[in-house]
Amino acid sequence: MRSTTTRRNITAGLVGGTILALVLPTMASAHVSVSPDELTAGDHGVLTFSFAHGCENSPTTSLKVTMPEGLASVAPTMDSDWTIDIEKGDDGLVSAVTYTAIAPVPNELRGAVSMAVGLDEDTPDSLAFPVVQTCVEGSTEWTQLAEDGEDPHSLDAPAPVVEVVAASADGHGEHGSADEAGDADTANSDADDDAVSANALGTALGAGGLVAGIAALVVSVLAYRRKA
């Protein structure tokens, strides 16, 4: 009896562990994300907002993205899977964009919408984009922001956030400068390798010419002796 009970407990533990292994990753990824999550001040880029679940497993019907202060321009991307409604503020700038799905997005599929945004030199260091996800049944407001020292991953419904990095002297972000420096080092290394190869080739050709000259001299001497 004890052996049977032990086997049952082990089986239950394995089943429970398997369920947790499958459910926890889904719970961790259950949010609306933005990519890229970093832009350069004064630059522009295309932001993609994606999701892979509905509201309590209900298919998604729309996403409403509210624009933060500090954007110089917003241009939603046309997509045959969504209709787009644009709201503007008194300043004429886009204040919110609502993407409505032509057909509800099933819970098993990934959905995504995008927009081009432009930044000013004085754009704040962090841009939060509150999103309201509406489903066939219910809705979820992805609007929570982490307080100082708080882990954003601990929030139940975090808003997508884009960090803004300062532009360097050449107009690129700090990461771009490092990448360009790496490219320059690679180019210099390639140039050095080419120079070494050219020198080696020149040395080989010079040596070959010297050997040919000596051989010709030997042939000439032998021919002269035969005639003599």
UniProtKB/TrEMBL annotation:
Residues 31-164 form the YncI copper-binding domain. Keywords: Membrane, Transmembrane, Transmembrane helix. Gene3D superfamilies: Uncharacterised protein YcnI-like PF07987, DUF1775. It comes from the Bacteria. Residues 171-191 are annotated as: Disordered. The chain crosses the membrane at residues 204-224. It holds the Pfam family DUF1775. InterPro entries: YcnI-copper_dom (IPR012533), YcnI-like_sf (IPR038507). This is Uncharacterized protein YcnI.
